[in-house]
Amino acid sequence: MLARILLGVLGTALFVTPSGISQQASPRTFRFVSEWKVPPQNAAAYSADLDKTVRPTLESLLQEGAVLAYGLYVTTVNEDEGITNGFWFEIPSFVAMEKVQDKLAKLMPSTIVNSAIRHHDYLFRVILRNSRSARGSNGYFYVNSTLLQPGKRDQWREWWHKYQKPMYDQFLAEGLITSYELDSGEIHTMDPNWIYLAYVIPTAEALDKINNEFRIRVEKRSTEENQAINSALEVLVVAGSHRDYLARTTNYATK
Q1: The predicted structure's pLDDT at residue 7
Q2: b vs e for 181-195, b when ≥16 Cβ sit within 10 Å of the residue's Cβ?
Q3: Any idea what the Cα angle at residue 91 is, between residues 122 and 9, rounded to 5°?
Q4: CA quadruple 144, 147, 150, 156: dihedral, nearest 10
Q5: Mean pLDDT rounded to a whole number for the chain
Q6: Is residue 14 predicted with pLDDT exceeding 60?
Q7: How far apart are CA 186 and CA 125, in angstroms?
Q8: What dihedral angle (degrees, nearest 10) is formed by the CA atoms of 35, 38, 40, 45?
Q9: Distance from C-alpha of 4 to C-alpha of 245, rounded to nearest angstrom
Q10: CB 195 within 8 A of CB 184
Q11: How far from the centroid of its chain's Cα atoms is residue 73's Cα?
């Protein structure tokens, strides 16, 4: 999944703003993602099992500081070979990751968990992350993924910071999202030129407002300006590689 998820992207620093957004220069962190494909009729029960077993463990580790953020989700827009369920957690170090995995390994397996057809883990390096302290349920998890042309990562980040980042900072300040981040593969089980933008949206109403803001921004620009922005991006990415992923976050929390 996350190898197909992102829509904005991030950079290398966090900041502090008057709105209370957590934003100071941060150490390098990581996002660990576990995803499963289960029979469609089992997806809801699988989600309930993760909420019963995995969520309390991640919440406890969040309170200890070993975990910086976590979320559990169920795919909203399904694909034939796509995943159905997953969870993520963000950690400050490999020591913390080991602690989380040791705790999760002690959870008792269940019949519904064992019904998974496929399982895949990802470890991402967080390039840029902005967030506010938040927790909730029944939100949305949006991931946009784009394959960059070799050697074009720095130029792409310049493009993204100029044309996309201000929008996500605005969404965060207005409470339309609770976090956004740019990730790349830390353990390259994917092409190392993939870049991912992931963000959490608290409500469907907020998702509608975000989509509307993007539409208005494009409409306000001249045709020539839109063409110039798109042309600048086209030389940086692999044509046709862009993918989106949308899921419901059954539970999420960020310190």
Answers
A1: 32
A2: bbbbbbeeebeebbb
A3: 65
A4: -30
A5: 89
A6: no
A7: 5
A8: -90
A9: 6
A10: yes
A11: 11
The per-residue pLDDT for range 91-138, each reduced to its tens digit, is: 999 999 999 999 999 998 787 878 889 999 999 999 999 999 999 999
Question: Domains in the chain, ordered, with CATH?
Answer: 2-254 (3.30.70.100)
How many C-beta neighbours within 10 Å does residue 175 have?
13
CA-nearest of 205, 189, 255 to 34 is: 189
CA 7, chain centre distance (Å): 9
Query: The pTM is what?
Result: 0.84
Q: How many angstroms separate the CA atoms of 53 and 47, rounded?
A: 10
Radius of gyration from C-alpha coordinates of the chain: 18
| Class of residue 137 by CB neighbours under 10 A (exposed 0-12, middle 13-18, buried 19+) | middle
Q: What length is written for the chain?
A: 255
What does the block give as tokens for 206? 């907020």
CA distance 77 to 240: 19
pLDDT digits (tens, 9 = 90+) for 146-177: 999 999 999 999 999 999 999 999 999 999 99
Structure token pair of residue 248: 């419901």
- Summarised one tens digit per residue, pLDDT across range 204-235 is 999 999 999 999 999 999 999 999 999 999 99
Provide the percentage of residues in the chain whose pLDDT is more than 90. 82
Instruction: Count CA atoms closer than 13 A to 215's CA, side-chain side.
Output: 6
219: CB partners within 8 A, 6+ apart: none
Structure tokens at 115: 């019904």
pLDDT score for 246: 96
Q: Give the pair of three-digit tokens for residue 237.
A: 């990415």
